[in-house]
């Protein structure tokens, strides 16, 4: 991975499970989706559905219990936080 990462911007969640603290019920449970490069997506749902939790997982504000998040087939857990966070963005 070089300074030109990400090249395309494909984002994939593979069986992502996340809790805010050990021992708490997971807020994301085996979440799977793939957003192709160049796609614009919206995440909608009622209160407590996990919309904000998806963003918190993507920005690594909380650790995953299981699964992987990939950007251009590169596992986000292997990236430095600064590199990850400066190369992704969202519009609230």
In short:
Helix content is 15%, strand content 28%. It is built from two helices and four strands; from the N terminus they run ββαββα.
Features of the shown structure:
Rossmann fold, four-stranded antiparallel β-sheet, globular
Give the low-pLDDT segments. Answer: none
Beta-strand percentage? 25-35%
The coarse overall form would be: globular
If you compute it from the alpha carbons, what radius of gyration comes out, rounded to the nearest whole angstrom?
A: 13 Å
**What's the helical proportion of residues?**
10-25%
CATH class wording = Alpha Beta
Reading the helices and strands in chain order gives EEHEEH
Q: If you average the pLDDT, what whole number results?
A: 91
SS element count, helices = 2
Total DSSP E strands: 4
CATH topology: Rossmann fold
What's the number of structural domains?
1
Look at the structure and name the CATH superfamily: P-loop containing nucleotide triphosphate hydrolases
Q: Please give the order of strands in the largest beta sheet.
A: 2-1-3-4
* CATH arch. level architecture: 3-Layer(aba) Sandwich
- The span between the termini is 29 Å
* Biggest beta sheet summary: 4 strands, antiparallel
> Structural class, please?
alpha+beta
Task: Characterise the protein shown here.
By secondary structure, this protein is α+β, with helices and mostly antiparallel strands. The protein is 15% helix and 28% strand. It has helices at residues 51-58, 81-86; strands at residues 11-18, 28-35, 64-71, 74-75. The protein has a 4-stranded antiparallel β-sheet with strand order 2-1-3-4, with helices on one face.
